[in-house]
Amino acid sequence: MSRLRSPFSILFLLVALLGAMVIAGCGDDDDSSDDSATTADLSECTPDQLQTVKDGKLTVATDSPAFEPYFVDDDPTNGQGFESAVAYAIADQLGFEQADVEWTVVPFNASYAPGPKDFDFDVNQISITADREKQVDFSSPYYEANQGIVVLKDSDAADAESLEDLKGLNIGVQIGTTSLDAVNDVIEPDSDPQVFDTSNDVVTALKQGKVDAIVVDVPTGFYLTAVEIPEATLAGQFAAPGGDQWGALLEKDSALTACVSAAVDELRDSGELAEIEQEWISDKANAPVLE
Which contacts (CB < 8 Å, 24+ apart) does range 152-157 have? Predict the structure, then answer.
């Protein structure tokens, strides 16, 4: 990922994404759907009507450091990066000016712990799961992780321009994951994918040349190419059912949940959410969408 420019960025990516991947289970069947979020009428979701932590302000949390492509220059306030842009877009839907948005630091694991929150909502690549929903609220999903194709940089597969270009590859994938279903149902390779018991086995197979490519969810792909397999690249991404969903996290039974969900839904319906994802995930993270 070209925008990770320093060893510190890689270290931070390792810590944050590793935690997210372990808990989220790489898109396992415990993930919740967007049916869990109840939405409101946006006309009833204005600063004078919302019960925010600070009157007239919207307090948004994320972890520190805040890393790319989700935030730029470790500065959530600049509106750059996928989740910074999403947070400000939600704020705009709720009638808050950018100057009325205040950021606060909340460690990833602390965000979904039970109890009162000193923020209005948190954006930090937090997967929506049934277990977490017992302790906190989530908005409608603002991101569903696509599947990513990871290949060695010097391979012909690195130049893939479509899903058709992947069909002839020997693809490795972990058993029991949505990635395996995605390979079979979407790519439909000419030969059956090689299935491995663990994610480590999948990575080792690519390093040793036992497979031409591996398929994982995109956030995992960012992590692998930045930390574990720097000689590899995320050649592209593609949509598949059962992706890992991220939502804005709120205090359990928050009065804001329905309004934040309504804001996310409007951003999705208007196409603005897709534009933000294209700018900061597909383009900036150098992971073109393959069709």
Answer: 152/206, 152/209, 152/229, 152/231, 152/232, 152/233, 153/231, 153/232, 153/233, 154/231, 155/212, 155/213, 157/212, 157/213, 157/235
Whether 163 maps to a domain, the answer reads yes
194 belongs to a structural domain: yes
Range of the domain at 261: 7-145+244-283
Q: Would you say residue 290 lies in a domain? A: no
Distance (Å, whole) CA 120 – CA 51: 9
| Number of domains making up the chain | 2
Q: What is the pLDDT of residues 146-201, one digit of tens each?
A: 899 999 999 998 999 999 999 999 999 999 888 898 999 999 999 999 999 998 99
CATH number at residue 222: 3.40.190.10
Cβ atoms of 120 and 53 closer than 8 Å:
yes
Does pTM top 0.90 for this prediction? no
Tokens for 134, please give them.
């017992």
Taking alpha carbons only, the member of 71, 91, 96 closest to residue 81 is 71
**Token code pair at residue 221:** 């792909």
